[in-house]
């Protein structure tokens, strides 16, 4: 499974009309699809740059989710930071 397939699978498992942020998708990916996460790191120089790619994948799948704003939640470094928030579409 590649990175985009893993992201789509995670989003598909989120209940309709539910809000979620990129940090939630990344945490779920590390728990359930760590191989897709690790194999796709490639030449990204830091986590923020790589996670921006994951956010772009979510935004690109407009049939599954829509961007509705920003959130402030814990990232993989256990620190709070801002990221995009999405709403799962029906």
Features:
alpha+beta, 90 residues, globular
* Overall average pLDDT: 92
Provide the helix percentage.
40-55%
Secondary-structure element pattern, one letter each: HEHHHEE
Main sheet characteristics: 3 strands, antiparallel
Net shape: globular
Task: Report the strand count.
Answer: 3
The Rg value, from CA coordinates, equals 12 Å
Query: Kindly, what is the distance between the CA atoms of the first and last residues, rounded to a whole number of angstroms?
Result: 24 Å
Low-pLDDT runs of 5+ residues are: none
**Helix-strand category:** alpha+beta
The helix count comes to 4
Residues in β-strands, percent: 15-25%
> Which strands sit side by side, in order, in the main sheet?
1-3-2
Could you please describe the fold and organization of this structure?
This protein has helices at residues 3-12, 22-32, 34-39, 47-60, and strands spanning 19-21, 65-74, 80-88. By secondary structure, it is of the alpha+beta class. The chain has a 3-stranded antiparallel sheet. It is globular. The mean pLDDT is 92.
